[in-house]
Design a protein that fits this description.
The complex is a heterodimer of chains A (about 290) and B (about 280). Chain A is mainly alpha-helical and about 290 residues long. Chain A is flat. Chain A is built from 12 helices and no strands. The longest helix of chain A has about 40 residues. In chain A, helix 3 crosses helix 12, helix 5 runs antiparallel to helix 6 and helix 5 runs parallel beside helix 8. Chain B has a domain of about 160 residues: Rossmann fold (3-Layer(aba) Sandwich), CATH 3.40.50. A 6-stranded mixed β-sheet of chain B has the order 6-7-8-3-9-10, with helices on both faces. In chain B, strands 2-1-4-5 form a 4-stranded antiparallel β-sheet, with helices on one face. The chains are: A mainly alpha (about 290), B alpha/beta (about 280). Chains A and B meet through helix 9 and helix 10 of A and strand 6 and helix 2 of B.
Chain lengths: ~290, ~280
Amino acid sequence: MSVPMQRNRIWPAMLATGLGDGSVMSERLRSLSRFLLHRALPPVLVTGALLLLWELLASGPASTLPTPSQVLSDTWDLIVDPFYDNGGTDVGMGWQILASLERVAYGFMLAVLVGVSLGVLIGQSTWAMRGLDPVFQVLRTVPPLAWLPLSLAAFQDSNPSAIFVIFITAIWPIIINTSVGVRNIPEDYRNVSRVLRLNGAEYFLKIMLPAAAPYIFSGLRIGVGLSWLAIVAAEMLIGGVGIGFFIWDAWNSSMISDIVLALIYVGIVGFLLDRLVAFIGNRVTRGTVAG
Amino acid sequence: MSNRYLTIENVDKTFGQGAAATRVLKDVNLKVDQGEFIAIIGHSGCGKSTVLNIVAGLLDATTGGVILDGKEVTAPGPDRSVVFQNHSLLPWLTVYENVALAVDKAFRKTMTRAERRAWILKNLDMVNMSHALDKRPAEISGGMKQRVGIARALSMQPKVLLLDEPFGALDALTRAHLQDEVMRIQAELNNTVLMITHDVDEAVLLSDRIVMMTNGPEATIGEILDVDLPRPRDRIVLADDPHYNHCRHEVLRFLHEKQRKVQPLKRPAPVEGTGATRSGAVA
């Protein structure tokens, strides 16, 4: 790989020095080729190699799993029409994912509200921390799905139960990160607020939240990742429309290619969720990290 | 002499309790007139920042107290604004917003929105920071951050401006530049200023009186030196001025002969800062 890379690096450089008038053009060309070479090429190459390996491994006569090309042809109808609706759970992949995202949105929002509030409380009050911390430390190790039977018993309905599972999964990192962030607010900022005589609400909005925001957002990022992990598992058990039950349903009807497609979608959506929260975090905490 | 503007009276400060208690300050007494510029100098760890924090209200004195303009200091407040050594600007706010936070809080009831805006701009203009209103602290240099810190402190129209080693973290050239600016602003506004420093030249150049503190623990005021150099002062002219050099010499002698960091503790008698005469009652 190193030989063609070197050659490509020299080529635009020669172009830039050789042409006087087209130097702007060649500068653009050079940055474009540099981008393709350093950013786009490695993932394309590696993904291609992995697909090829998969194709080879799965193409034997004894293979139990479909090849990539087989998956593509089996699921082509699902890919091209993500928003069909034949009633019941027979709806397109787009609807399935949106149904899952809706549950995650409700559960996660609830977790943000309650988690940030509790985090601020135990970050501010040593008494609250001493009281609540042992409880949290034990509860946070309970696997998400272990909450499901209990929440089914409590809510007597599958949808609120799934939302509760998301809530209880996402809340722990949010609480813990928020409380650490609040506890780590520099003494200087507290002094500034004391000299300015900010009242409680002003201190909360103008000093505490912005100062703790980087910590809060790293908690939110972990939380949203865990939510997406939990929703797929929870939906397998509760049924209905949703990407988790879609996977379970596909397994029951031996449509392995559908499972593969669903896994790819789950991965992409999880990735996008993570990036979305990171993006919002970067916008909100702009300037906060470097003082 | 009870009608002084700012009075620090018999202030003692002990940190910790029981066996771990450390008496940091012992019997600190100081009287300051309105419009006076006081520098407090001493070796690091002698408790000069503690004195400032007690005046600011950020710390409570164990015994004794501070009276400003006839009222006892019990809590921090905008009438005693502080410029912290590390500027303490809020990094998520712009230069303008950092000053606005103080101005909006201090003058919400007494100024209209337009008046407050004009006042914020005026204060930033005074420290020559009008060009960077929308910059965040991370985007400006250390000297500029300190300028904004000064603007924020001045904008509250404090009765006393407290400077806690304001230029300690800056390079020598930037420091000299900011010292000149502080002198210019001081000539314009005639503030009452209490400045902590460990820089002898800075103390002599800027202040009307230099308060020299003995080494801690149980630190107190050792000597007070009057710097009756005419203003405006020019650092280049003063470099050859015999009185300027005499003052420098006095401070250096106090810091490096009388209060050498390594020498065993002495117990100097508390000194009443009478201002007009130099009080030399020291161990």
